[in-house]
Fold each of these.
Amino acid sequence: MNFDVDKIREDFPILTGKVYGKPLVYLDNGATTQKPYSVIECMSDLYSNRNSSIHRGIHYLSDKMTESYENARKTVKEFINAKSAHEIIFTSGTTGSINGLAFSFGENYINQGDEIIITAMEHHSNIVPWQMLCERKKASLKIIPFNDRGELLIDEYEKLMNPKTRIVAVIHVSNSLGTINPVEAIIEKAHQRGIPVFLDGAQSIQHLEVDVQKLDCDFFAFSGHKIYGPTGIGVLYGKEKWLEELLPFQGGGEMVDTVTFEKTTYNELPFKFEAGTVNYIGAIALGEAIKYVIKLGKVNIAEHETELLKYGTGKIENMGDVKIFGTAEDKISILSFLINNIHPYDAGMIFDKMGVAVRTGTHCAQPVMQRYNIEGTIRASFALYNTKQEIDILCEAIGKARTMFS
Amino acid sequence: MKAISEIQEEIIEEFELFDDWMDKYNYLIELSGNLPVIEQKYKIKDYLISGCQSKVWLYAEYNNGIINFSADSNAIITKGIIALLIRVLSGRKPEEIMNVDLYFIDKIGLKQNLSPTRSNGLLALIKQMKLYAIAYNAKYEKE
């Protein structure tokens, strides 16, 4: 495999940085990823030389920017193999996408007594919008449980489905445990009963092959900043048949056809769902990030990350008194762990001073922590530019924390 | 009793002995042992400071115009910082606490612990200590 990680690191300016005089060991990619020059320079170029609002202008800059924006939409469409670019809606991120979807889907399809299925390992962004919807409509949430390894109990899932189930919303990959959920099976079983499925792809888009036609999911969302793109941009994919039926979740300019005070009609897809001035800079830069990933090859990236996961897991397991949470058969390169009885916050503070950036706490997945009866974990999440040497430094930090707090 | 500013200067001097972050943290770990520990009966939800990644309990007792604090946390570094706060603020009149400027935290290099992120409850803790002072002041001192 031709994956020269040292050469690849040169594409990311921040990785040469130091914190507290020590080399930055950035292992918080589950929170956000670093950006390659191509993405940074793209944004800089857009603002320096090309900035103009899109879709409505009649001048050169506007034309060019509109073209670039719609090309970015095509890039996303091809990246996730959607049938049509109309099915790609640019949003502010995964959270924005889910809130929008929950609202719109709720308006059309959720009534009193209806049920929505989610899992016990969701990120709060795939719990709260549905909870809010249930409160508004007097519907209820049903939860698919998971076992100690962090694997969903599919038998229990089947028992939850009934004639009142309106949608299944599932985290594709767990941000707290790393579990890759058996979404194909989940979707198949839901479709047998005519129930649509939404996948939260915030942690899958950058690590796994995502082919929305192959998966046959009805909706899919992800964030740009988690796949080496900028913040403030994300995607909501929806099958055209659904998006045609759904009402918009935001009203304003751009998403309209005709406006009078008596009645307003809406624009066609995808513009119906893109109110206001969209983050066109973010969308175009996201396109660049996707091109960067395609250039390296998702398969190559996945292979490298799998090696990191194997190496990291092996080293940590050998340390004896470190417990890993999330030991599913299928997982991505995330290591969520606790050292002895040391509070994750204490350990995190030590790691920080050694230049190691990890996330500590509940990872916006409080129900997961409650399931294990813990307050939180230390999470190291790897990306395409991480190295085995960085994992060695992580282990040194674990050793240091262990010594200091024993 | 020494003035608040005198105690803060003492603490700053103590920390100046350390160049290395690890030494500062080791010292905080040591100091965590000095924390006047909250009584078990007060280790309940009512006295839990919210907004912390770790659990922090705080109790304030008022006697003869003086407030004494006791606390606990399940994160050791947090415990050490609380021990310092209590060293500065315990045994004081409510109005001293209400109006205090806790500059020592920044001076000893722990300003990051004051950032308004969820990861630390220090801001919430200081706010609660001041709230106790305001409450006791309103209840007893204004009469």
Amino acid sequence: MNIITKSPLKWMLVLVFTAGASTLLFSVLSGCTKQKETIKIGLATTLTGPASTSGIHSRNAVTLAVEEINRSGGIRGRMVELIIKDDKGHAEDAVRVDRELVQEGVVAIIGHYLSTLCVKAVPFINESKVLMLATGSTTPELTGLDDYLIRLMVPDDRRTRLIADMAYDRYSFRKTAVIYDLSNPNHTIPFSDHFQKNFTQKGGEISVAIPFNSLEKYSAADIAQNVITSGADGVLIITNAINGALLCQHLRLIDPEIKITTSPWTLPESDFIKNGGRAVEGATCLVELNLQSSDRKTLDFNEQYKTRFDDSVSINGYIAYESAHILFEALAKTEDPETLKDTILQQGRFTGITDTIHFDEFGDPRRPLYILEIQDSVIKTVGQIGM
Amino acid sequence: MKMRISLKKTLITSFIFVSLLPFLATSFWVAQHLGLIMEKEASSKNILLAESVASELDKLIKIPVHHLEQVATMLDQGMIANDKVDEFFNYFVKTDDLFNMIVIIDHQGIVTDIFPFDSNSLGLDMSNQKYFQKASLDKKIYWSKTFISLQTGMPTVTLSLPFSRGVLLGHINLSFLNDITDTYTIGSSGHVQITDSTGNVIAHPDRVKVLERFNTGHFYHIQQGLAGNKGTYPYKLNNIEMIASVTSVPRYGWIVSVSQPVKDILAPIQTVKSFIYSGLFVAVIIATVISIICFRLLLTPLTNLVEASKAITDGDYTSRFQTGSYLELEQLANALNTMVDAVKQREESLQDEVSSRILAEKNLKDNQEQLQAILDHSPALISIKNLAGTILLVNKKFHILRGSLPGEFIGKTSFDLFPKDVAESLWANDLSALEKDEAIEVEEIMQHDDGTLHTYFSIKFPLKDDKGQAWGLCAISTDISERKKFEVENKKLEVQLHQSQKMESIGTLAGGIAHDFNNILSAIIGYTELALMDIDHPDTLQQDLNEVLRGSLRAKELVQQILTFSRRNNLELIPLRAQLIVKEALKLIRSSIPTTIAINQNIDPHCQAILADPSQIHQVVMNLCTNGYHAMRETGGVLDVSLQEIELPAGDVPTAMHLKPGPYLKLEISDTGGGMTKDVMGRIFEPYYTTKEQGEGTGLGLAVVHGIITRLHGHISVASEPGKGTTFTIYLPTIADVQKTVPQERSNPAPTGHEQILIVDDDDAITQLNQKILTGLGYTVTASTHPNDILHLFQENPAKYDLLITDMTMPDMTGEELARQILSVRPEMPIILCTGYSEKMNEEKAKALGICRYLVKPLVTKDLAVAVRNVLDGSKHPPLR
């Protein structure tokens, strides 16, 4: 049935519409807007304490990567939100911050840097089924495990074999002392053990193995004296950059000719050269990246980093940056956090900063290692080994 | 149904919005304006604060420089004894809050002294450190980048100062800056932050940011500050809208920023907004209440109008529009009430009309259904055609013609459905009905679907419109093929039956006839003998001969009756006077039944003629009288026979008689016999039903009578009661034309003449008799028993003779042949043909031959004389029978 609608009614309808629109506008202007939900990723690394240098670099690099992806429109239209947690270099804090990140809804965690922390974190991430991309952990303890941990740095069992080869064959180490820092035992002890084993298998001799804890008071001079006294012609230092530099200074004070090689935890950091002075000249190391690459991508990243943080990129920065991009690539393929690991492993190969990274079925990488050597207070890439 | 908006709701909603819209707009404008003002004020205040902090910082940082310069001067000038150096510096580090370590590096970059003492650091090579290189090479004070001290874990900056022994280093713990940032409280969650030249946080109320060396270089306000731009800038921190006022500390490149969440700044606005919302809510309530009250006052009369209109719509015309409110509405109500009255009247008349129409439609529907039922179930073929012969409608029965559904006949003509000859016949009948403009009844032949031809009795009549103009033709055709077949057979059977009846009657009458003839013959013989004896006595002789003649005439009549009765006659309807037939029949009856049964006659001699077959009328009378005789033969009685002419007036004809009004002959035959029961009476006209003994009758008599009367469009009824006799009453329609009728009374004397007459008959006695009679009448007669002789005589002199009287049946030549030959000679020759009884000749045949009269023997003198005279005179008297 039709009822005649007269013009006043229409006028009133217009009025009602206007009033409704005004209210809506008022609401909008009052800030009632909603954005598309962000994708949360976590970064758990050491930001405070003696080992914080690597963590800071990791944070800076991941921050750059996140800013970069968000500038390009995010992942499937969703912005990436980075939640950063400080594990303080302590195992108990590592699990705590991981749990906090999971509770805050991150789809994956980049970190930790220290192997000891990763060893502690793996049971939790396995239980939570949250992918963790380790930026520094190289302990053989986690090699060959079907877990939620994917590592970007070559495990130490392989690395130490290559270091032994390098030291013995390239730098003619014959009698080597090993100094290792018990502040990161899950990394340093297996590292030391594997090196000793591989070096002796090469025909070399381990003159002495000296543990110390950088978190406690120790005498670098005494350690250096012990090394020299053992008759070593070379030394492997497994500690952070500052302590490594300190030990180098003391070793070279006693024996300026002693050959020095370090773990990747030591030499690539800028603090090593700053604090090592001339004492670190000729020191060598095996790392995953060609720090003198002239690749555009590498140079751009270096430039960005320098501009943003007024600092050079460390090895940890590169690894963290690679980790972030691998995670972004996987997130572009799947929205389900539980399938991120399988997505990465199924793809198997990713383009890193300077090389292609291959992952085996356990999430351990196969990638070339580069020989770094400090020449005239500059870290230089002098060769490639492995792969 | 289209969605409707309630006027009430619309008015209330509109009122609310109209009253609130200005309030909303004003509130919005105020909120926006206040927000801008407050942001501006906050900006100014925070910039002042940032500048104040920067100024304070600048002053504070000058202090360690001054201290280190004093120490360097003291060392250069040897104001400190060599053995007191360690003591001095340890005291200095311990007492000076700013420095937590003093290091002396020689010109080679080797650590020579360190306070407090650290064996690990003593002697180390620091030549790679920038702070050494800058101070040593540039010879001026250098501030290093901030870094986290491994010893203190706090942000630290190294101040390097060249002096005579190398470079004097002082590690300044920047934790004192936190005291500054902690001093200021900015709103509820604002803060003061100090960053170094790379954007790293070096002082912040949140220590974690300091310890983690949180880099803020990517924030716009920090970037602006690092670029030397003082001002207030917006940014987001953890998705919280912030504004930060920044200024730099030029000497060191540090940035002081005062940040505050926009929300905090605009907190008063939020309060205002809360007031607005609350006020809005209250205003809505008030506006709603007011509008409801106002509009109820306005709308209640309208609602009353709506309610009244609903009631009226539902048919309650006693409801009235009443508002009792505003003048305009009251006027509207009055107008509506007037309209309702008009509507009511119109509706009532419409109601009547609708009822009538519904009834008419129902009747029409019933009629249509009845008509359809008639069409569907009629055993007859019913069709309607237009004037062009195209079929418009047929009933279902038509499938018998083509095995098709009725619809398949539509649009076709008879020529589409039947062979040409059949179609032409049908079309001719159609045209006949249309031309006559009335109903016609015809028999038509139509071919069935199985190929058989059927006879249909069709009634066809034109269909007319209101103006009487024919627009089509309706035909109703009934298949009478079986009936026709039955009728043919029935007719045959009836003829046989009639013959059987006659034979039965003859059997019955034989005795009486023999008796009559014996009596006649007895009289003739007796008087002839008397005449012979009285030959000499002329008077007595004449009397005797008269008696002989009378007896002979009686015999002639008796023979005539027998011939009439026994003659085969297939329904030859002629106009006849029934009274004569009845009389003849009664004579026959009288002569055949005992005298114990009296016959009373009441015959009206002036009755009009009827159209009938004389023999059948005779048979009817005979049958009924015979039945009466049989009823009375044991006891004797009276047989009453009456014949009267009556008039059946219109409206007074008993329906059961099925007779049209008009003149009728009423024949009543009554007996005084035993009568009949009702059961018997109900069956007496059934064929083969009889109450007679075996051999007395066939049981067909009354059935035949019934059939004859019915066929003559008459009626027969019977009235009887046991013991009171039986009366049969017959009605037969009369006709006006009585050209053909039964013999006239003969009373005039025999006419005479003088012409020449030829007579031939193979019977010599008859030849002589006729010759004597005609000679006696004055004619000149030439007679012979041989027709050839007569023919020769005529041929010799055809003009001599005026008349030929010839017998029909003769051995040498029939009368017919003779007549033909005579006429071939002289066509106008008058000829009278006489016959006793001949199957081969009758009056019509004779006439066709050119014979003037046809006479049946025996001839009476007077009849012969009249006939001769008439022929000779050219008279046209009706022929004698």
